[in-house]
Amino acid sequence: MESEQTTPETGISDRYHPKQVETKTYAWWESQNYFQAADQSTKPPFSVILPPPNVTGSLHMGHALNHSIQDLMIRWKRMSGFNALWLPGTDHAGIATQTVVEKELKKKNLNRKTLGREKFVEQIWDWKNLYGERIFEQMRRLGDSCDWNRKVFTLDEGVSRAVKKVFVSLHKKGLIYRGKRLVNWSWPLESAISDLEVEHKNIKGTLFHIQYPLADQSGFLTIATTRPETLLGDTAICVHPEDIRYQGFIGKEVIVPLTTRKIKVIADNAVDPQFGTGALKITPGHDFNDFKVGKTHQLELINILEKNGTLNENAGVYKGLSIQEARKKVVEDLKKLNLLVKEEPHPHSVGHCQRSGAVVEPFLSEQWFLKMDRLAVPAKHVVENGTVRFEPESWVKVYLHWLNNLEDWCVSRQLWWGHRIPAWTCSDCGNIQVSENDVSYCEKCRSANMKQDEDVLDTWFSSALWPFSTMGWPQDTETQKTFYPTSFLVTGHDILFFWVARMIMMGLEFKKDVPFRTVYFNGIVRDSKGQKMSKSVGNVLDPLDLIEKYGADSLRLSLLAHISAGRDLKISEPRIEGYRNFMNKLWNASRFVFQNCTDFDLANFKLQKSNLNSFDQAIIEKLGKCLTTVDKSLHDLRFADASQALYHFVWHEYCDWYLEFSKSNLKSSEKQTTQYILLIVLEKVLRAFHPMIPFITEELYQMHPMKTGACIIAEYPKVQNDREFFKLGTENAETEVDLIKEVITAVRNIRGENRLSPALKLKIRVGISDEKTQKIISENRSVIMSLARLDEMNLGEVGELKKCAVSAVSVKDLTAQVIIPLEGLVDFEEEIKRMQKAIEKCEKDISLLSQKLSNPKFLENADEEVVEVDKQLLTNSQKQIVALREGLTRFR
Fold this sequence. Notes:
Number of strands: 29
Number of helices: 29
Distance between the termini: 46 Å
Structural class: alpha/beta
Shape: globular
Low-confidence stretches: 1-8
């Protein structure tokens, strides 16, 4: 292992150590209050509300991506002169938190029912106070520059007050009501759950064909079902009205197998004649589609389940059995009666509870619901007219479709952890009172025997108020006046309906304005093969492990440089390692600059345009173009374009070329000008890159002699803010330098292709057909010869090309040919064999890639990124084979 070196003049080590930088830098930022926003300021406001992570959660790759985008925007706006607020908070996560604590209690042979509600909730608060800050500490590791003084928890007193007020207000308006309807039911939790908490899994099920005897004893009607046990709750058989097979059965009665109940055969367009037998059993109490059919035909609702997932008294002799036990017994009994026609394999998707893993059952129960249709109307308008912008815009259509097909929202949960529903029932007269304050007596009968509803609100209910409940609403605070509506929201498209749409509805209803101006939908972070990360698959990347290994900046840039709005992102550890290498490149480039500028007299230096050489002018021109691209890309929310523009400039323009060009000038009379350009370009780069890679840029900025305070609050560099400096750059100089680079690169490529030692000084010819090219190359002869390691360079005619390596060079209207005689340097017979093999490989690659790219199925199913990579590979192979064939001709 190499020993670490430090430069005596600067004391900077020769490699970047994130661990030594990140913790101390973050602590310094916090101590200086750099993250704090002001409720009153002359600066324009910019605000972002953090999508609250679960209080039980820990930082995962989805957070890393989502937070990197938000932090980039906040830092960019802060540096651009905005009063930038990033308001953090956590969600109480009703089901998740209650589940975690119940598991802990189970280890002590306790459960919530033995403890009672009050003591159980105390246990959860104890857990929250112990572990609730963990996610915030992990966010600090990533570099999140949140205003921590404003952090909010969804069960804080202020948020609770807002939740009660909203519930009561909506109830008074008739929008919240109590009723008996079907809900997603998790029997291990004994609670209703949201659609988002239902995970659909493909299972190897069975389709059971069952005969229902006709009541007139004229025969049977056969239906097909995957859930035979639910026939105990059947209230009709349904067929399609145009299905000629069943025209004569409509209106007749059948007997429900294993019972004496008679039900009718009805007709409805909801039936798919192609499924099963085309006749469908209708169980309105245990199927969402059947519930709709039952409502249309006014069918009886029969519930056969208890809250714990066992069958109730409506199931007769099957009472007390679990669903699986009942299914097995029902099938056995149907066989005994010769009513089971057949069983056939039937793979299908079944909803499972995310938390418990149990199959979710549609369950008929008394719940609180919120009517959505009236709230949806203005929520549609603000997206249609662009008041709220979606990025990518394609999600607008999905959003509007959902709002046009809304169901009422079940807002109650049968949990103990959460916002308890502010409703009290009189035990004497049954009157229900909804109030923001505790109710001590019945307004109807004056009884003091009042009992508060046991249920709590769905976690998404309090989350829907997040943009204004976090700012002190219902009080009229300065925070709201300054920062509401918020400017920017970053979230996943999977919660477009559960969260984004509901926040828009609640913002319009209670603040009379939208909650945010722009919603940016990020995709899912997948592994290098495009698979979803899963612990069971073993492909999960832990961001905290990656930060520990490679540093936060490397992780952030690996995400930001490849993100595209709405599209999933592939990530791998080698990619992150590559960005760690970039950090070292930036570090050592800065080290070189600082080492060579220790004697630079900044106070007395005055830049003279006449002292700038072509290399100086070119790097200024390139920096200006880079910053223009970055500025436009950030405004357009094209974070990858902004990140990659800076990455390319730093690595390929500044480090690979300008630093090399500067070495000879640092030993000349132009030294001070070169030092100035080295420093000022680096200083602007550090500021421009800070929102993406904040730790390393702050560390290097603090070493920089041109620094002004902290990088985090320095002005973001823009061409229009420093026009005089950027006027010093010229396109002519850029073209000249690009030509010089191409000539040097051509020599290096020929050296590599022909396996010539880097130490070998070559003799070359440069074929030139115009005076302008001749002049540029001639004037830069010494630079080219030094960097290309040449012994001799002749300019003029192309001449004889036999036994020569040739590379054409072209920059705009400037062209040249780099020619290197190889006689005596290579074994031509071996080279011919090598080139023939390379041609054969190219031919195979071209054939395979051409077939692939002409296959409509591949083009339809493959990611755009994969298709583009293959197109580029094909283009490169086609160019390579032309060059190889030309070379082969010259070598023979």
